[in-house]
Design a protein that fits this description.
Helix content is 44%, strand content 15%. By secondary structure, it is of the alpha+beta class.
Length: 239
Amino acid sequence: MVEVAELVAAPKFKKAISTHLRDARDRKEQVTKKMLRKSMEVLFKLPENSLDAHKEVIKCAINDFVNEEESEEEADVQSPPPKPKKKATKTVKPTAKAPAKASSKSSTKASSSSTKASSSSSTSKSVSSKRKKDAEESDDEEPPLKKPVLTVKTKSGAEVPKQIKKSQESAMSSDEFHKHAEILKLNVFGNQLTGEPRSFSTGSKGWYVGGKIEVEINGKVLWGSLSVNCTLIGSKEWD
């Protein structure tokens, strides 16, 4: 029987997790971490509860799958389709009408325009009054809570090009990436983290950094769990 520790470190184990999660997603089924461990034990014919000691490895594989799926979805965003051309409309020439009828319609239109102008003026005053009232009431209310802001400032200041996935599919080979890619180093609240270049179970290339870190808030030291995944778009196609 294959040793459990040796199995969970093998690429085929992470690939099996990705396949299982992808199938569950397609079937719109919810999968918990415990359910996933049980499924892997059955698939690889492992003793019951033998994967409980490897929860962190399975958690990393799940994060890899989720983060890569999100990266691939963002990369598939393309430019908006062209606007449809407007159909040519035929111009119908107006026919001459009798003077008496024209005069009658002109009088009716004038009366209608006067009524609309009066109604419009009344509506405008009503809207203006309502806005003024809302503004006065809003001064007494507390300002709404702001949503957390997420910002990204790239090295060159440039924004990601459109259809980046297609343009990077032939950017380099897998061997070139592993040979020249540097170790990812992060400093988060004074915590030092590093992650070597890697190939994910899905075939994409990138980095993963994660673990427990210290966070000081209002003089109190708390512990948090950090997970950072960087997937190179289009790298799944690198041989």
